[in-house]
Fold these 3 entries.
Entry 1:
Amino acid sequence: MLYEQIQSNKRRTYFLLLGFLVVVGIVGAAVGYLFFRSLPLGVIGAIVIGGIYALIMITNSTNVVMAMNNGKEITSPDQAPELWHTVEDMAMVAQLPMPRVFIINDDSPNAFATGNDPKTAAVAATTGLLKIMNRNELEGVIGHEMSHVRNYDIRISTIALALTAAISLLTNLGSNWWLFGGNSRDRDNRDNNGGVQILMFALSILIMIFAPLVASIIQMAISRNREYLADAGSVELTRNPQELISALKKLSHAEPMQQVDEASAALYISNPLKKTANLFDTHPPMEERIARLEKM
Amino acid sequence: MTILIIVAIIAIIAIVWISVYNGLVKSRMQTKESWSQIDVQLKRRNDLIPNLVNTVKGYADFEKTTLQAVTDARTKVNNAQGPAATMAASDQLTGALTHLFAVAEAYPDLKASTNFTKLQEELTNTENKIAYSRQLFNTTTASYNTKLQSFPSNIIAGIHHFEPSEFIAVPENEKEVPTVKF
């Protein structure tokens, strides 16, 4: 079961890349049409810009993701003994190398893991989490994160995050350009052209509006199910479902985080943004996760 | 042609034999490694205890019997032979330490001392590591012993005298709560 999960995560990485490439291409076509009246130029430009951006993010993902989420690295157990030792314990029992450890200064309790593989993995916890969880509950949370590391979930979510960021970069670039005037020669030409041109123009704008939404739907689809698996993985490590249940209950009552990078929301153990359920949630409802744990 | 087939069959058997043998060696190595993990933590805890006893002794009216129990249990762990006996002694020491930290709750001065809180975190950490490395030991032992019993690795294991590894019993109360909280 676990082995299949790891294999399917490695396989899905390629589909994910392909899916995002298509979205990037479509966005590029829209931008290219709007500003240069040239679809191929836009597509190639977008793939080059998006590709380079995503590549930089993926190769340096841990640092980028931690910077985006205001994570501060701790390098010795003395800085946060309980967190450091808990991560050490969970890494040992999961037979993984010790990941880098980060702390985010935020009163809302939350945690996430990132990296490309277990060797480059990093785990982050908020100060709020360390404040409200007892040691056993913290173990449950860190066990959940280490399961993400072991299952290679971190690789998929890192890549998805990088590509989502690349798409929002492209659409921001496109819409800013358009707002600040764009190319005046194109404007003149546009006035002389017919209905087809207006239709294409409208379509391009629609694509730029909806592309980030599509990107987040792809991200959502790959992240929801894995939360259940990571919960189960955590129990496998700690042999103690009760503590994770009590940790999740505490998390479900928590306030949203102060400043959180929206593209990273899917990484966290509990949704850091808002607490009402909707179609685009990256996380399954907390009650459902607790119910599944109680059946163990 | 028949010679070729025979050679091929022998080659296949040899390859399977070698890979199964190497798998067994690796598996046995893992059980030994996970035992040494436990051993490291047991030593660490034994090194921390004199420090703890000295810190606590400073608080004049601290129960002498409680301290004596910890010191005695520590000596037992030091002298125990073999995994099963060592772990039984270790469980006794865990019990004595849990009692000590429970008693310490009644000494606000002691609890406020940074030296004591640091030792408490260190010992909690070591206790948890012992519990988790024991869990790891049992996992690696289970997979090694399964290899010894399943076909075809059981044949190769029998010929090369691979001995099964023994599980470490987990105390009843720890089955419910795997980690100790002081």
Entry 2:
Amino acid sequence: MDEARRKIEETVLASTFPGAFRLTQDAKGAARLEVEVTVPGGGSYGLLITAEPDYPSSMPEVYLVRPLVLRDARGRELLSISPSHEMHLLKPRNRFLRLCHYKPEAWHPSVTFYKVVLKSLLWLTAYENHLQSGRPITDYLGT
Amino acid sequence: MDSARQLPSAAIGGELLLRRQGVPAKNRLEFDPASGELRLRPPGIPAPAEGNVTVIDQIASDGFA
């Protein structure tokens, strides 16, 4: 991510998640965004969004880093059933749940980390509804 | 589900379910930076002029992968 894009990302995040994010980059330009989000009346979650140096041309990845263990409505650890289409989970990495967000064909360099966080917040809201209803996350978010 | 035990997010979940079943959206789905949370806003009620509220109906409907 170049410097101009980083400034855009930081400006947007500072106005939408003030005090709740940390955006860093390594020497090669790969980026890490850590952000705290809350589901209405529900839990707080820590997300880690990683992006390769060629972001925003390439799509970032989203990991759930807090809490470490999430279970489905039947009590199974979500890590143990990943990847899962009906729960919109990709193959995990480093023991972290990896959330689905944008479809590759829908990804565009104009999409910012902010919108990826909003997608993730929708996933988490659907997850908390799943815990109450037992319905798969695809029922809430589509296939 | 017992409505007395519904989570606040259940209203959002109910709205998302209906949309997936082809029922036209009843409310706008928004993200409010002031609270840091998603919320529903009934039609006809404008978003506050201040506060950077983001309507995310499109983000919710364009699919996940």
Entry 3:
Amino acid sequence: MTGAAMKEGAVSDVNPNPNRPDPIMTVDGAPFWRAANEGRFVAQKCGGCGRLWHPPRPICPECRSKDRQEQPLSGRGTVISWVMPIHPPAFGFDQPPVVALVEVEEGLRFVTNVENVAPQDMRFGMKVEVAFATTRGGHKIPVFHPAKEG
Amino acid sequence: MVDRNSQAAIVGIGQTEFSRNSGRSEQQLMAEAVLAALDDAGIDPKDVDGCLTFDLDHSDEVDLMRNLGCREIKYTLRTPQGGASSVTTLVHAKKAVESGFCDVMVVWRAMNERSAYRFGQPNLQIQPNGKSSTFIEWCMAYGAQTPAVWEALSCGPYMNRYGVTSEDLGRIAVLLRQNAATNPNAWFYGKPITLEDHQNSKWIVAPWLHLLDCCQESDGGVALVITRMDRARDTKSRPARILGAEYAFLNNHEIISDYYEGDLTDLEVSRRVTERLTKAAGISPRETNVAMIYDNFTPQILRQTEGFGFCGRGEAKDYIRDGHMDLDGRTPLSPNGGLMGEAYIHGMNNITEGVRQLRGLAANQVKNVETVFCASGVAGAILGL
């Protein structure tokens, strides 16, 4: 992990949702969550052909390699969809979260949250950058904040 | 294409009452619905040799046989993908009886959904597994915990691109509730809504889904009996032939949480089904007389109306506003009131309504019905006399 990645992923001082559920981790998904817990936002990279995949999977559909590696992502992306669950309230959230679908520069899409933004300022096509939120069990998971520039 | 004598037909439909608390087991709902369907067909339970339900159904094949007295089953199947399974069951039932795999197939869905587990509430017991739920791993920690949230997130790009307004969605809810209001079998019988009611109903998922954009939650059981036309000659009720039934499942696409592949404003899966279905049935969904389209949430009606070729992309909101899916329109939408108005038995009560429309016995009977289209996103079927 690079120092820059850690800095990029610094946790916000104010956690709007300290009771956020911990991630559910499957055997095949766990590497993504473990990297996040160390402050790294990564995709699965195929050791055979170099393609990136999300959600993670044990076998590359392009070359059938089982060699799973990690690729750090730039953390920059675009909101391609967003919603706010109001009723029933999302379990573990004291404030209704902005749930978003973010497409990152590398072309992969992630279900995530956009934080540090007022709902009325949410826009399709909004530029965002990765940050990390803390769950009730102390895990760090990737979320996004509005991009500081551009 | 099979000849008419060997073609599959729905010869029996059955159901329990639709409620918010059935007061009895799902096993009992299953047995009551299947027996009602067999009685409707005039077929002895001892002749049942195939059975099919959803992988999410809690009732059991062993119990089905024990309650009904079936002797020997030659074929059983459970279909994945939640409510998308509803029309998928017809795809398998048709092929099973036409191939001779079995002769009399019963299809059922029985659930105490409203009183026992409510799909609309965050479910903390749900685990990523083979019951179409692996996506949960990527959603739960972000507060995407209910079907309404998953659906709204996947519909957003469509809504945004085509400028669909909440009023556009509201017109769908008003239409379905208007149909339910004159269907004594519907939970919302006698309870139509106005566009104002829709607009004033609480937010479920901002900025797309108000309460009245979401289907209700229900307890109940629904069943079908399917056999070949040569055997259908002896049945009590008029057979509804399954002219075509097709299904598609596309790489990197999920069902309700369809986020990861391609242009999210398009419903490619429905277009693929339409191509094959039109070829198999000899007519297209648009040429049928009644459209029973899975209405878990109002945006689904827009996307499927386009996906199954009733109108062009981005045109569904205007197609509906112009009355083409009204009871007296070109292709009436769910005259029973759909899942929003009649009951949410995971789509199966939309199929029984299709059969009633063909028999000419529906509460809101459309005139001169010769063909009915049934759809649940990934699957489509055309029924005919």
